[in-house]
Amino acid sequence: MTDSTLLFESFMLMLIGMGIVFSFLLLLVGILRLMSALILRLAPAEELQPVASSTTAPLPTDTSEDLIAVISAAIARYRAPR
What we know:
Blueprint: H1 3-42, H2 65-79
C-alpha cells in the first residue's frame, strides 16, 4: 500500500466514525425531546401558588461574645500558614 491510499483509508475511517457518533447524538437528542413532550402531555407541570407571608423571622439582634470569639479563631486558623 502506498502512503496516499493509507492516508485516504484512514481519513475515510475517521469520517465514518465521526458520522456514526454524530448520528447517535442526534438520535439521542431526538429521543430525549420526544420523551420530554410525552411526559409533559401525560403529566402536566403543576403551577406553584405563591405563598403570601407577611411575617418573616426576625434576625437575632444580640451578638454573643462566644460566637464572635469562635468566628475570630476560625478565621485566624484559616489564615495561618500551612
